[in-house]
């Protein structure tokens, strides 16, 4: 395999994703869904894209911002928390969050001992805060006029108070189970996070720019598909406008006069067939409202693909 050089002219796009960890598999699933194919072997960090000229780099999430800054990768899939930290601590400033990807939801929060009566940021003055995100934490403290010391740990942050290494923590929280298991409670949210697609500013030049456009276009399509459903129904002619108004974030519905089969062949049923692509949630409550508005034969169908 040729060396993975950064700045030589390239006509293939590179996407860096987490090799393992929480975002590795969902990132692979997303890239498969946009039509990328590659072969992986356990010891190979570079995966040659087989279907499209888009290659993958399988790395630790912390290394993705640096790879983007150095021009080794064109896109990276990582948590907003890591992107924000490396943007603030000066190791990879100026990277852009190009898309939010909807998986890996969590928040960066301050956790204090459960027994505390927390009244606000001023209470953190002079304390030691254990965190893997010292730059975000210090930035937040500064903005709240609080002087506190961060103790940087790369993992198992929540145990630091019981070990006497820190007074409080600032770490990622999802279910809150890890904080609870360590007799801590969340009191401040510094950042809402999820997996994002990050890139250096500007569009890559030449053929890589075209590949970048293609990747983004397909990603948008996949994201829209995930949020979309097709709804079909029959509606009395006089209530079509009312019903269309109840559809959640629908694109212009297709309306067709519905025929019914009589003894002498098809005749006008007085109903319209409606087919609508809905981008909002088609919940049971929405279906009940549509039924109350006279809709019959309500059916919700999944969407397999879409090109926007
Ligand atoms: N409990 C959680 N729930 C949901 N998402 C989370 C949770 N914890 C972390 N994440 C998100 O997943 C990302 C990756 O987390 P993971 O624990 O795999 O990172 P890591 O241990 O630093 O991995 P690596 O070995 O690549 O450095 C985090 O940066 C964050 O965006
Ligand atoms: O609120 P919860 O649902 O309990 O999730 C929060 C925990 O998840 C992450 O750690 P992870 O499990 O990835 O282990 P790590 O410390 O090795 O990264 C994070 O650092 C918290 O410790
Ligand atoms: Mg990491």
From TrEMBL:
Enzyme Commission code(s) on record: 2.4.2.17
**Subcellular localization, per the record?**
Cytoplasm
Q: What processes does the entry annotate via GO biological process terms?
A: L-histidine biosynthetic process
Top-level class of the enzyme under EC nomenclature: transferase
> Which cofactors?
Mg(2+)
Swiss-Prot/TrEMBL catalytic activity: 1-(5-phospho-beta-D-ribosyl)-ATP + diphosphate = 5-phospho-alpha-D-ribose 1-diphosphate + ATP
Alphabetized GO MF terms: ATP binding; ATP phosphoribosyltransferase activity; magnesium ion binding
Q: What is its main location?
A: cytoplasm
Q: Which keywords does this chain's UniProt record carry?
A: Amino-acid biosynthesis, ATP-binding, Cytoplasm, Glycosyltransferase, Histidine biosynthesis, Magnesium, Metal-binding, Nucleotide-binding, Transferase
Annotated ATP phosphoribosyltransferase catalytic domain residues: 60-205
Which SUPFAM superfamilies does the annotation name? GlnB-like (SSF54913), Periplasmic binding protein-like II (SSF53850)
One GO cellular component this record assigns the protein to is: cytoplasm
Record-linked InterPro entries: ATP-PRT_HisG_long, ATP_PRibTrfase_cat, ATP_PRibTrfase_CS, ATP_PRibTrfase_HisG, HisG_C, N-reg_PII-like_a/b, N-reg_PII/ATP_PRibTrfase_C
PROSITE patterns, sorted: ATP_P_PHORIBOSYLTR
Q: How is its activity regulated?
A: Feedback inhibited by histidine.
Q: State its role.
A: Catalyzes the condensation of ATP and 5-phosphoribose 1-diphosphate to form N'-(5'-phosphoribosyl)-ATP (PR-ATP). Has a crucial role in the pathway because the rate of histidine biosynthesis seems to be controlled primarily by regulation of HisG enzymatic activity.
Please state what the protein is called: ATP phosphoribosyltransferase
Q: Which gene holds the coding sequence for this protein?
A: hisG
